[in-house]
Every structure is written in structure tokens, then in C-alpha cells.
Task: structure prediction
Amino acid sequence: MKTKIDGFYLGFIILGFIAIIFILLPPLKTIFYTPVSTLRETVLDAEVYNSISLTIIAALLATASGLLLGVPLAYLLARRQFWGKRLLEAVIDIPIVIPHSIAAIGILISLIIFIVFRMIISCNKQDELLISISVVHTVKMRFVGNC
Result:
């Protein structure tokens, strides 16, 4: 049996193809318009390799934790009634309700407060004020001024 595609669905199909093109175009352009030697050099670079490895590991851990924790929790929420169920559902809905920009601003403010309390101020032999900031041993910045 043939299904008639009306204008509404045709519009959604076209918009879907446009979205797929916007997603696929940048990586395909990178692959096909970059010389093979440059791609090989970039892929073999230690920082790029570490970045790709970290991304894959993070994705695998997120997927595994979602399966191990999320599926049983979803089953309980769908099939059982228990005390605190509505509160638990509300907590689960928080990431959907709060916009990502607000969450990012909250994280940024927390990071700034953390940096301010971890600030180390010292003067070196040239009487320059050195303010070293270290965030969990990953990001290090140094500001140089007069003492």
C-alpha cells in the first residue's frame, strides 16, 4: 500500500536532509580537501591522539553508566510506586528544565570562586608580582605585574 506524502511531511524531510548536510559537510570537507600527509601528521600527533582517546573513553564511560544506572532506574520509575518517586522524577528533569547556559554560568562562577581561593601571590627576585593560578593541576596561568 502506497502512502501519500503531503507537503507537511515533505517539508520535514527536506529540513532533515539539510540538518544531515550541515552535520556531515565539515568532516567530509576536512577529509577530502586536506592533503593526506597533513591528515597523517595530525592523526599521529600525540596531543590529537590523547584528545581522541579521551573523547572515546568519556563516551564509553557515559554510555556504560547510562546503561548500568539509567535503565534500572527507568524501569523502577515506570513500573513501581514508591515513596519519593515524584521528587526523584523532578531531580531527573532538572537538566532538561534548566537551560544549559545557566548551568554553564553556574559552573563558571564556581570555577572563578575556586580560582580566587587557590591564588598564590608571591614576589620574585626582580620585584615582579607573580600571581599563579592552578586549577586542579590541569590549567595553569601566570600573571606578571609590578610588586
Q: What stands out?
A: Strands lie at 120-123, 128-135, 139-146. The chain has five helices and three strands. The mean pLDDT is 78. The two ends are 83 Å apart (CA to CA).
